[in-house]
Fold:
Amino acid sequence: MFLKRLLNLKGTLSFRLTLWYTVIFIFSSLLALSIFYYRISSITMERIDAELLEEMEEFSTLRSEEGLEQVKAEMALEVKSEDEEIFYRLLSIDGQVLAMSSTQPWGRLEVSGNILRDLRDQSRPVLGTLDIPNYKYKVRTIYGSISPTEVLQIGLSLEDNEKYLKVFRDLLFLLMIPLFIFSALIGWFLSRQALLGVEEVTLTAIDISKGSYDKRVQVKRRSYEVDRLANTFNGMLDRIQALLKSMREMTDNIAHDLRSPLTRIRGIAEMTLFSKNSIKDYENMAASTIEECDNLIEMINTMLDITETEAGVGEFKIEKVNLSRLILDACELFRPTANEKGVNIITILPDKLHCQGDSNKLQRLVTNLLENSIKYTESEGSVTISASLDNGQVNIIFEDTGIGISEKDLPKIFERFYRCDMSRSKAGIGLGLSLAKAIANAFGGDIRVKSALNKGSAFLVTLPH
Ligand code: ADP
Structure:
């Protein structure tokens, strides 16, 4: 169980962030501590070198002021008085040993002929470090001329220095352990804090997947990124909820619109079956059934047309269409119906107005809007169709003096199967405007509407020129 949780943890972003944080922290701490250690060790070495140089300077002065014997006496005195392991060797410039102190515990120490050669050419002392085989610590040496014919070599054990650096190294190592644990804890805390918002989004998503569609992630101003994620997620949920609602309404409407004609077909068939009928009655039943079926087929075809147009599939070409001609033809087609109702059709069109689109689809768009304007306008009313070119876009307005649309209905009339209560007495299936809008959108245009109840409506279609 514990192992399983540990394995699960390994795959989490928190774990990976913590790991990254700890590795980066350890790496940078090691780098900083190494630089620090390097500086400390070079400072101590510089101090030792300064001491040796000073000592050489003192011996050089002693040689010139008080002679060689005094130098030898001073060497013996220094060895006795020093706490540290130190050794002195007085050499002639050609390498002969004139005097030397004990080299215990280092054993035999070779004279460097190269250094002596260098000293013959230049008078500056030469510093170096010796790695002696049977001795635990290194030895720092200095060769320097104390007179034109004599060279003094001083050797100083680096025991104290190395012990001091070892204590320092152990201390740094001990310090690193709590530092690493602390960095892992901080990394874990920071990653948990950063991912808390993401966790909340996940929990809300889990709730939603169980059916709580009205749940939302709380925006708590944690950080810009998390709040943006929460807002985007909430926005997406709003849209999904609205989509689900409209789909539910659409399904209700489809069910309703299918049930009425099917009930009618069944009713006619039942009546014909149970009454003593003539052949004429059967013919009437067949005719009514065909009519109802035609309506159903038209409804299904229009739904398919809308879906195809919205998805951008299906056949339509983009060509230059003479809109003035197309509108005039549609008006001629509907004039008899309008005349019969007593509705006047007025056109205000330029001689030639072109736009980009598919003429068959644009014809459907125009006829749907024109048909609606005539259908929802009572006798003595008028329908005005005007078109113009404005700022590189084509505007067509279908204005009527009809029944109008209430403010409550206005945002919904482009939804599939939506019909305002006032128009339910008229023929129609509630798909004409959806198709018209889908066509306008497919060509990069749009349809907007303004309306006042019992005064009339105006549909503005915009299309690219
Ligand atoms: P249909 O006309 O078949 O009902 P539409 O999709 O064409 O379906 O229109 C949807 C609804 O919008 C109509 O039922 C009607 O209530 C309203 N509507 C459309 N055009 C007009 C108009 N010119 N005047 C008033 N109401 C309209």
The pocket of adenosine-5'-diphosphate is lined by residues 372-373, 376, 400, 402-405, 413, 418-420, 423, 428-434, 457 (CB under 6 Å). The first strand starts at residue 86 and ends at 92. Residues 247 and 440 are 22 Å apart (CA to CA). The radius of gyration is 51 Å.
